[in-house]
Design goal:
The chain is of the alpha/beta class. It has helices at 17-29, 49-52, 77-86, 96-102, 134-151, 163-172, 190-193, 220-231, 247-256, 272-277, 293-300, 331-342, 345-360, 364-385; strands at 4-10, 35-41, 57-59, 90-94, 111-116, 155-160, 181-183, 205-210, 236-241, 263-267, 281-284, 305-308, 323-326. It has 14 helices and 13 strands. It starts with a strand and ends with a helix.
Length: 386
């Protein structure tokens, strides 16, 4: 039996949803007898040492830095050698840096898959405001590089995680690829995160938030929620996991408001499930969330979710069933929902049970089967076309 050869590419292995999914899906694909898989990593930054030992990883040691001069896209000899020796049927990229690096050496005999974990701003269409922003101009330059070096010579497909992201890419990819956009939601290791909480409203409520401290994650709103809960003399603890550019700012705000005994920042942790298992409810403040793999992880542990509407997470949150979507950045409404749910034992238990059942349908084994079916479909279509 001829195996399908799949090469997944990612820039590095820092903590993040896209990085974690790439590792998980490669691990899962190794269980398919008709698939041979490798993971190419362009930079050796690895924050998942516990997950990478047994994976077929090729460290490619290359760096991409955007520049309008055109000198920043480097010829990557290790990547070129990997392509020539492994001879993949499909190259599947994750996140924009890997997508750009994949353009340094392309082969028209290979099918390419771009995994769109979010609405990548580099794909935005040219507009009058493009020249007014160095960032927008750089993004347009990078999209042009992809068009010239990759998209005009190869057959490319785009996997999106949510309907919102799908709508974005239908407006921004080259027109010839519009029919090549597929919705395949991410899966996760359900067994790793499955746990049933037994807490009651008599106990202190333990809230948790997980995510990088970047602008769009908006953790300052959670500090305001903690302040509101404290003003109401509500018994709680809030743990935040992650790191990023705004972490110090958030820590200073916590200390200034006298919330250090209520809101605890733990930084990057490798055993995130242990913190989830100690929690009762998940809160999320991102004003833009393209999907939210973390939602599935906490639901597997029976944690209902209170989250700001981040557009992409509308596909996962069923209001009143597994959580609540908050429309506005209003800490009082967050606090109302938290207290209301925690004080209603029956509603909390029903939502907790539903969360577990809902998350189970996203188990990695199920979603990887969908992905393999997709691989076979596009390969068959390509053979027919040829």
């Amino acid at each position: 039996m001829k195996k399908i050869k799949i090469l997944h590419l990612i820039h590095d292995l820092k903590k993040g949803g896209g990085e974690r999914f790439a590792l998980d899906v490669v691990q899962s694909l190794m269980n398919f007898d008709d698939v041979e898989v490798k993971l190419g990593v362009f930079q050796s930054n690895n924050q998942y040492p516990d997950l990478t030992d047994d994976l077929p990883i090729e460290w490619l040691d290359s760096l991409y830095t955007p520049s309008l001069t055109g000198k920043s896209i480097l010829s990557n000899e290790k990547y070129k050698t990997l392509i020539q020796e492994f001879k993949p049927d499909i190259v599947h990229t994750h996140l924009i840096r890997a997508e750009l690096m994949s353009s340094t050496f392309v082969n028209s005999n290979i099918l390419y898959v771009t995994h769109c974990h979010d609405n990548m701003e580099e794909f935005e269409n040219f507009g009058l405001d493009t020249f007014l922003s160095k960032r927008k101009l750089t993004n347009f330059y990078e999209k042009t590089i992809l068009k010239l070096k990759k998209y005009r010579t190869v057959q490319n497909f785009f996997i999106v995680n949510s309907k919102h992201t799908g709508a974005y890419f239908k407006k921004t990819v080259p027109k010839k690829f519009i029919d090549n956009i597929r919705l395949i939601q991410c899966g996760f290791d359900f067994s790793r995160f499955h746990n049933k909480t037994t807490a009651t409203p008599k106990d202190k409520l333990r809230l948790i938030n997980i995510g990088s401290f970047m602008t769009k994650k908006n953790q300052k709103l959670l500090v305001e929620v903690a302040q509101e809960l404290t003003l109401r003399n509500f018994d709680f603890e809030m743990v935040m996991l992650g790191d990023g550019e705004h972490k110090v700012e958030i820590q200073n705000s916590i200390e200034k408001l006298g919330l250090s005994d209520k809101v605890i920042l733990k930084g990057v942790v490798h055993d995130v499930e242990k913190y989830i298992f100690k929690s009762n409810m998940y809160i999320h403040s991102a004003y833009y969330e393209p999907f939210g793999l973390v939602f599935l992880e906490v639901m597997a542990a029976g944690l209902p979710i209170i989250t700001l509407d981040g557009k992409g997470n509308r596909d996962l949150i069923e209001n009143g069933q597994n959580g609540y979507l908050i429309e506005t950045q209003y800490p009082v409404e967050f606090a109302d929902k938290i207290i209301q749910l925690w004080n209603d034992q029956q509603r909390y238990d029903e939502m907790s049970d539903y969360c577990i059942d809902y998350a189970k349908s996203f188990d990695l084994s199920i979603k990887t089967k969908e992905l393999v079916t997709f691989y076979k479909e596009i390969l068959t279509q390509n053979e027919t076309r040829i």
